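One chain is below:
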Amino acid sequence: MEKLTNPIDIIGYYGPLIIIFIGIANIYLKYNTQFLLLYVFLNIINRSLNQLLKIIIQEPRPKSNDGYTFQGVEKHGMPSGHAQISFFAITYLYLITHSSWLLIGTLCIGLSTLRQRFKYKRHTARQLLVGSTVGALFAYMCDYYTRKYKIFATVK
């Protein structure tokens, strides 16, 4: 892990986890346990989708000045996992809660994640854009099919 001293960079680095935990807390308080498990399961599927796309695309990360190297599938930068995970959670949470405040708060964290990943040359702007788009589209698709097939009757 890179040495982070700026609080915004620290929030950006841990942004995906922060957003997921915000989602878990909100779903736990407002919905049933089955829906909470669905949210966690979909986040795991989203992460697996990111790994699969990295293997298929195999686009390298940008050259970093700090000499930090990634191993395994993580040596590929397309699409950005941080961006995909963040924007999946942001979009999915908004689609199920319709909370503007939750959207604004998680979007601020998500944007700080994009900023941190670009600033530290972990991803190109295109890798961040693709990761964000894939995450948001996957969230929309999950929400659509959850509602269409009435996976849980308590989903609003």
Q: What stands out?
A: Helices lie at 7-13, 15-30, 33-57, 81-97, 100-119, 125-148.
